[in-house]
Amino acid sequence: MSDRRVTRQVTLGDDAHGYVKIGGDAPVSVQTMTAGFTYEIDRCVAEIHKLAAAGADIVRVAVPERKDTEALTKILHQVQVPIVADVHFHFERALEAIEAGVHKIRLNPGNIQDRDQVLRVIDACKERGLPIRVGVNEGSIVERKDKQKRMTELGGVFSDNKHGHFLAIMVAKLEEYLEIFHERDFHDVVISAKSIDPQLVISAYQEISRRFDYPLHLGVTHAGPRETGAIRSVVPLGHLLASGVGDTVRISYANDPVFEVEDGLELLYCLELRQRRGAELIACPSCGRIQVDLFKLVQDVRRKLAEQIEMPIKVAVMGCIVNGPGEAEGADVAIFAGDRRGIIYVQGERVANVPEEEILDRLLEECRRFQSRVERGEATLGQKNVAILPPDPIGELGSGFDKIAAGDVEKTTPLTIGGE
Length: 420
Ligand code: SF4
Fold this sequence. Notes:
This protein is α/β, with parallel strands linked by helices. It has 13 helices and 15 strands. Helix 8 (226-242) packs parallel to helix 9 (257-270). 42% of the residues are buried.
């Protein structure tokens, strides 16, 4: 991991919705966007609550029509997370959203270009201390319609990059747009340069991070369904974040935006850019040695942990004893399955040996009990007290082969380990 690139810092929010800082030394934030209509107030509020509960630091809403901005005041009264208004084509929507009390505006230089209109939005934000994101998208920059002309004009600018044409347009567009902001000495700006192409995303953000000191909003636009969009997003965003570039992230899926929040957070946890909230679940991939319905168990454990555990307890669900101990090293609570049973360990100490149908409840009970012990100061996260011994069938290096040869394997099933 490289040191994080230092950017200017902007703050959004208020006392009622909390404050989020983007850039500078602030933790990388996670944001998402509601998928429903903003004018459907109750549904919009419910969706914002759901996204905030999933861990979204900031939630953006679309305001394509007047009825959407008219809904904002009622929405803002009912939610507790900073709200961004996403504005395209009509600068009036930005002014209405600002009036309604949103905490940040997103403008697209590809479709709001009139200098006076942009200045009016800047002035309104300046008056209220609101930041603006200038979000260039490969898909909405108008110059792409005249590709050949722009290639001639800009082709040489990034000629060593296979995306040189789009890269040049995106950078040029940003520079041109930001001049309007500089005219007003307005610097509460966050910038983004999204594309569907992961390599262009990397190149674009690397380039704008060299040219501007504004905080960067990272994202891959139109990444598609989560099944493929996750890789498409995490590869460039992970690369950039690991190299110190990026101050806030939005992952975009054609799916429930809760997944965007969950995956954005997991990415930041993996890179240790955010302190984990809730349990960390590790699980084996399953293989021909499996003796319980591991996939179902893992999904059930994941869902219940999210509901019941607030601490970053590390929980391991392992399908058998062969690789279980090694893979679960360091887990606070671990289960090794075998022979339709599960052996549960808490920080290396065996606490239960239960049939398959009782694994879920018992594992969660142990997680809750462990959480309470940590709360009372009787246990410490990540501190293993007792080494988990390797399974008996392996024992001394090579001894397993002798046992197999002697037909002794049945007597040394995983459930017989550790003296039981
Ligand atoms: S822990 Fe056991 S069941 Fe799971 S993948 Fe490893 S060997 Fe296979």
